[in-house]
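Title: Comparing notes on inverse folding

I've been comparing how different people in this forum approach sequence design from structure. To keep things fair, I'm posting one structure and asking everyone to reply with a full sequence. Here's the target:
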């Protein structure tokens, strides 16, 4: 396992937490979130202007989108199907939780609101839910928000917040499961589940290996949990994985992503003592064991910062995770929240030989420039493009935030 913070070129997005992100065509695409209290002037622009980070040239680009875009939101679910990003739910500063559904076409950068186009009874307004995809379906679980209008007919449970404060009054947690069919006709469905579904919760992490969805932790009432479940995305059968070895502390607002066909990566979160976490854990799905990378910071040569409500996405390099943003102290603190805008990579597999060679050639471009004519046209173009971008932007920025990642 290795870890590094890249030098970044171009403008850099505002610091933020609670955003949504997907990886598409070699780029990290970032939506929404919120930043420091003194950045209120960015307002709606957090979502109207999306940002993309190109991992090949380590450059951020701001894109102005068209169409009916969402407002400023946190805790939304973003799922990529083909070249379309489906953005569901979240918390809007002006109106609270929502159950609106939007779609962003990444080829035209055009938003469409789909809420009224979907047939069937959909989820209630909520944020911080989990989501997976299989074929042309998106599956949503849990979250925090308003009770459904047809609560007595719902499959699953809803618990109201026992000690509500401010906007939490009348809201609570659920363990409802809904499917969004994204075929020729958009349709909401609520399937019957097999097995014991997880307790209601929000701000859990979700990931996927093949047809199995994984869910870890999250908050229910006053407890942040450390239980682990799988969901068969074809039959909707829940299974709790019993762990008899060490395992992570209970947490919410953490991030999870696959790093192989049999391993999951978990980083950071917020624990039951009100602390932002910086630990790294690997779950072996075959042996059903957790392994903490106890010496992660010292072995990386740079201190890993605590991180909560960040995002972690797989890149197109096997075993590589890109982490962006989040908060490095308690997001509930009355002190100033330390939001970040740093990019970091965790690698659990060697880079491909082509990637290592092209990186080396770009570092020594003047030596190998004449020899590039011998390379295939597309590879030669990619090397020339990356070199020009770096040459034209010589003063990159090392964004570390808080003297660490």
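Reply #1:
Here's my take.
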């Amino acid at each position: 396992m290795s870890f590094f913070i890249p030098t970044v070129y171009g403008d850099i997005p505002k610091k933020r937490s609670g955003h949504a992100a997907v990886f598409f065509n070699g780029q990290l695409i970032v939506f929404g979130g919120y930043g420091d209290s003194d950045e209120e002037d960015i307002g709606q622009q957090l979502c109207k202007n999306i940002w993309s980070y190109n991992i090949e040239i380590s450059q951020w680009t701001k894109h102005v989108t068209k169409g009916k875009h969402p407002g400023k939101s946190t805790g939304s679910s973003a799922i990529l199907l083909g070249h379309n990003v489906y953005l569901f739910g979240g918390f809007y500063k002006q109106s609270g939780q929502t159950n609106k559904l939007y779609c962003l076409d990444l080829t035209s950068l055009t938003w469409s609101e789909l809420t009224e186009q979907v047939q069937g009874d959909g989820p209630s307004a909520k944020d911080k839910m989990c989501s997976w995809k299989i074929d042309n379906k998106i599956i949503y679980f849990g979250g925090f928000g308003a009770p459904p209008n047809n609560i007595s007919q719902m499959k699953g449970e809803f618990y109201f917040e026992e000690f509500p404060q401010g906007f939490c009054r009348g809201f609570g947690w659920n363990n409802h499961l809904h499917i969004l069919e994204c075929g020729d006709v958009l349709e909401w469905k609520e399937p019957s589940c097999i097995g014991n579904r997880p307790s209601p919760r929000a701000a859990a992490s979700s990931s996927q290996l093949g047809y199995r969805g994984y869910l870890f932790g999250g908050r229910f009432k006053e407890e942040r949990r450390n239980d682990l479940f799988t969901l068969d995305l074809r039959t909707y059968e829940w299974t709790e994985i019993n762990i008899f070895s060490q395992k992570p502390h209970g947490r919410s607002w953490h991030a999870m992503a696959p790093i192989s066909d049999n391993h999951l990566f978990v980083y950071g979160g917020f624990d039951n003592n009100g602390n932002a976490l910086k630990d790294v854990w690997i779950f072996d799905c075959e042996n059903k064991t957790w392994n903490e990378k106890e010496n992660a910071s010292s072995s990386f040569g740079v201190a890993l910062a605590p991180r909560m409500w960040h995002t972690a996405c797989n890149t197109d390099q096997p075993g590589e995770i890109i982490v962006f943003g989040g908060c490095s102290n308690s997001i509930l603190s009355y002190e100033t929240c330390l939001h970040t805008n740093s990019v970091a990579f965790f690698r659990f597999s060697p880079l491909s030989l082509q990637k290592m060679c092209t990186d080396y050639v770009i570092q020594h471009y003047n030596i190998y420039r004449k020899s590039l004519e011998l390379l295939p046209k597309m590879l030669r173009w990619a090397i020339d493009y990356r070199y020009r971008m770096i040459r034209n932007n010589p003063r990159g920025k090392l964004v570390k935030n808080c003297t660490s990642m």
